[in-house]
Design a protein that fits this description.
Helix content is 37%, strand content 25%. By secondary structure, the chain is an alpha+beta fold. 14% of the residues are buried.
Length: 130
Amino acid sequence: MPPLSNYYKVLQPNKQLKMAIKLHCLADVCLIPMGTGSPSISDYIAKTENHIRKSTKVKSTLHSAGTTLSGEWTDVMELIGELHVLNHELGVLRVQTDVRVGTRIDKDQTPKDKVDVVERKIKDIQKTEA
């Protein structure tokens, strides 16, 4: 297997390949290490989540089927790439990731804000049904 450094490039500080995308996004990410020899992948997910939490640019919320990432588009996508590299460094030969990304330009909104709005609407519905 080639060294993992073949799969990513460290840029010199004064050189960029392209402009960073400054658009804020929320990304729901479900990373699946494949071929680990066990149906349990929690050890890999714990190490993956630990790496996510070290990020200073991207906020995260762990849930039962993945993690929601919140930050600038370029930072979120870069972190997802880092997660693949991390899992390959852990010995995983194949990594599959499902990503669902949303952007919004009319207002700032956190993952918690989105849940709170729905919870409030459910309470309103329940009041009218009572």
